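Hi support team,

I submitted a single chain yesterday and got back a structure, but I'm not sure I'm reading the token output correctly. Could someone confirm the output below corresponds to the sequence I sent? I've pasted both exactly as they appear in my results page.

Thanks,
R.
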Amino acid sequence: MPPLLNWSVLPATFRLLRLTVKTKIWLTVTSIVLLFSFFVLFYLPAIQERYLLNNFNKEVQNHANTVALGVKIAMTEQNFEGVQTAMDFVKQDPLLRFVSLLQTDTVWNAQRSAYHIKRTVFKTYPEGQAIAVEATSNDTTVIKRAPFSTPMMSGEILLASSTRDIIQSRRQIRITSLLFSFLVFSIGIVIGFGLARNISVPVLELRDAARRVGRGDLTQRVHSKSRDEIGELGVAFNKMVTDLALARQEIEDRTRELLLEKKKSDELLADLRQTLADLKETQEQLIRQEKLASLGQLTKGLVDRLLNPLNYVSNFAALATEFVKESQELLAGAPYATDTHLQTEVVPLLTMVEQNTQKIEEHGQSLTRIVRSMDKLLQAKSDVFIATPVNSFVEAQLLTYRKESQLASTGIALEFIQDGAPPTTCVSILPAEMNLVLVNLLNNAVYSLQEKAQLGAPFEPRVVVTTSFAPECVAISIQDNGRGIAGGDLPQLFSPFFTTKPTSKGTGLGLFISQDIIRTHKGSLAVETEPERWTRFIITLPLAPAALS
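Hi R., thanks for writing in. Yes, this is the structure output for that exact sequence:
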């Protein structure tokens, strides 16, 4: 069984329970005030109440004994008027509830082996009041008995007095104790504030000043008017801060001299680095342009030579499809419709030939699109960058795209959320190439929404284009709530000829060309996605130099 308490943890725990000086002062003052208040509120009233109640019990008992003595004398002398006189002794007491003369008789059982005392009310005041002969004292009434015995009769006096005065005295004692406790508590609060002001406040001020000095603020000074040890500590602290300020000033002067020398060398180094970066970038552009030029010269003739055979393949495949359809129509009519051999052997072969020719036509058209896309990729691009307001350019392209693609008829909502940047915020772009990037990304978003709509699940197809500005760049995001992109396709998404569309609908060059154009603009193209929920393409472009200034 593991131990109930890990004693090795206690020292660390107590170290965490750090009490400030102010807390200790308040705990001490509060403890003293609470102890004194407990003494005044509970202990003293309890003693006084007990004292009053004891005296009152003795007084009532004395009255009962006096009446019993008077009754005994009167009974002995057979003076019945004296009995009344003895009971009249307590009638004037305002606290009297009742006084009764009880006769006590001993009643034995038939075998005279046991007995009990029988009490009978002989006389009572006030007359006619019902008396419980076995009554005992309670919170509101004190009941006392005084026995007597005479040759004529034996009995006892039953005297009941109200504790009204004791209850009122108790209430007054408690009110007085409460007022006195409040007075003591108020005095304790004043004393606590005084001690905290004279001890805790200077200590806390010194602590806060030391912390600010530790963070480097050497202008801190402690203003203490006391002449005790705390005042001397404040003077020593001020002298220490002054010495630290002087030492820091000397260090800063020397550091400033070193920084001036270092700044000159850093500026020279920065210029060299910038020159090297410009040269490297220029070299990369030249190498890339040379590669594209070489590739273009190599494949330009090949593209032209491929298009003609591909057109022949597509045309002859379409012509073959028409011949097969005519043959099928001919075989479906008389007299071939009743020929079992033709219907079971030739017609299925014609159907297979039709499917094959359709595949040939489909793949030929797909290859034609790929060749034309390659030709577009190898075409010479404009190299004149134009400073263009981003929001105006994107808004104009979206308006054109809505009209040309007829989005209204497809039920797809196209929204544009633009950042509240000044109209003069521009980027340097090649307008035609950047328009091609936007069209490619919008086409992909619309295709993803149409695919999701074919699944039959209810949703609201939506494309949201957003612009946002940072100090040195602008981001254009195009987000749709379509099918998203599978995680396994992300690493190859920008590879040439990779596509997630069917062969008849995709070439795999749209994103590759878009990324190439964005890199030409010294920007980046990123993608974020959540499968079956949404996809977001983010174009990041540097701001034009005029916008940065």
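A quick pointer for reading it: Residues 1-5, 12-17 have pLDDT under 50 and may be disordered. Let us know if anything else looks off.

Best,
Support desk
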